[in-house]
Amino acid sequence: MSVVCLARDLIAHTGASLRCAAAALAVIAQRCGLDFPTPAFSTIRSWLLRLGCYALCRPLQKDIPWAWLIDHTIQLGPQKLLVIYGCPLAEVPFGQRNLALGDLRLVALVLMTQSTHELVDAELEKATARTGVPRLIASDHATDLKKGIAEFQARHADTAAVHDVAHHGANVLENRWGRDPRWQEFVRRLSAGNQKLRHTAEAYLLAPTLRPKARFMNVGPLLRFASRVLRLLQVETPAARVAEQYGWLLEYQDALRGWLEEHRVVQLTIERVRRHGVNADTLAALEAVWGPLSDRPGTKMVAGHMRAYARRYGSLAEQGETLVGSTEVLESSLGKLKRLQGDTAAGGFTGLVLALGALTGPSDEAEVRQALDAVPNKEAEGWVKRTLGATLHWLRRQFLGQKDA
User: Fold this and answer.
1) Stretch 167-173: mean pLDDT, rounded?
2) Cα(first)–Cα(last) distance of the chain, in Å?
3) What residues contact 381, with CB distance under 8 A and at least 6 apart?
4) pTM of the model
5) In this structure, are residues 94 and 276 in contact, taking their beta carbons and an 8 Å threshold?
6) Alpha-carbon Rg of the chain, whole angstroms?
7) Does the N terminus or the C terminus of the chain have fewer Cβ atoms within 10 A?
8) Where in the chain is the domain with CATH 3.30.420.10?
9) pLDDT tens digits, residue range 238-258?
10) How far is CA 81 from CA 117, 341, 394, in A?
11) Domain 57-164+327-361 class?
């Protein structure tokens, strides 16, 4: 079982692929003089599928309050994967650290060709068979998820719904900056400069780029870069090449100070909620963390929206209760899944989606042994066939393997 646990840990904690984990185990065995047969990558895949299948069928306690974290992930093709993780509220490490994969249990994995709020609601109802009705559902408030949760709440009034704090903060910044001509011009000029430098010897001067998707969740590196370059420009004799490429940034000194302050308010809020959750004390705690703020209209607007978030979701917590306000750990697991799938992630979902169950929950040897004893490889592969059917990978192999007429 130690080898199984080590293989799992290599994948869960280092981002290793199946082949990399197999090679690493072989090197460890050789260097340490250990006498055990090292597994092939296909064997590790089988272990992950069996662990994940067990995670989906293992009994979970129903008589305690649970927090659910839910999200959709998409790959090539028409399907979405609905992921529902759960964590007993009493086990959330509020104030100590952020939620980690080991804190979560995989409640449901649902492949959906169409995702409507009615279907989301139906799947949430099915998931109650495993944990009972949850006390809390946290999500990124995508339209189908938000409406589906609302329909679920109409039948289960004691279930609270919390918007992931990072997505809320990104929406606030998008609302503030997306309509600001100065911000748009700033981003365009940085992008134009990057185009000129990209394939030159001066590519080291490139500014960070914003991701096409969820760009307002990833503006920190860009703002920090611009702030550092401004400091280089403000010395007595700035470097000639820096001045030539970025001298125009001096026109944005005041605007950049405002953007940095607004981003700081959002980022400090995210960090606070990720670690401490939301409750009746969240608003006062945020005010203390922010410290004195300027009278800039943009800062007032952003701080006002983050105060509204703290008031709204903090008020959902009962006296002495704290609720989860972040789905960061769920999104982290989806990123690990895509890295594990490697190039195959570009071809749609594969059976490795079951690995989401292997990456979460307890990982001690006794638990792993119980899981592998309970789920043979045939059962795990059967789940993959029933759930995924003819995958895009399989269809593509059939297409490319056809004989010429």
Assistant:
1) 95
2) 51
3) 49, 351
4) 0.89
5) yes
6) 24
7) C
8) 57-164+327-361
9) 888 889 999 999 999 999 999
10) 14, 15, 18
11) alpha beta
What values do phi and psi take at 110, rounded to 5?
Answer: -130, 120
Handedness of CA 34, 36, 42, 44 (dihedral sign): negative
Q: Which residue has the tokens 């092939």?
A: 40
Tell me what percent of the residues of the chain surpass a pLDDT of 70: 92
* pLDDT tens digits, one per residue of 74-109: 765 667 889 999 999 999 999 999 999 999 999 999
* Helix (H), strand (E), coil (C) string for the chain: CHHHHHHHHHHHHHCCCHHHHHHHHHHHHHHCCCCCCCCCHHHHHHHHHHHHHHHHHCCCCCCCCEEEEEEEEECCCCCEEEEEEEEEHHHCCCCCCCCCHHHCEEEEEEEECCCCHHHHHHHHHHHHHHHCCCCEEEECCCHHHHHHHHHHHHHCCCCEEEECHHHHHHHHHHHHHCCCHHHHHHHHHHHHHHHHHCCCCCHHHCCCCCCCCCHHHCCHHHHHHHHHHHHHHCCCCCCHHHHHHHHHHHHHHHHHHHHHHHHHHHHHHHHHHHHHCECCCHHHHHHHHHCCCCCCHHHHHHHHHHHHHHHHHHCCCCCCCCECCCCHHHHHHHHHHHHHHHHHHHHCCCHHHHHHHHCCCCCCHHHHHHHHHHCCHHHHHHHHHHHHCCCHHHHHHHHHCCCCC
Which structure tokens are listed for 261? 């302050």
Which residues are CB-neighbours of 304 under 8 A, at least 6 positions away? none
Q: Please give the C-alpha separations between residue 377 and each of 42, 66, 345, 351, in angstroms, as whole numbers.
A: 12, 30, 22, 12
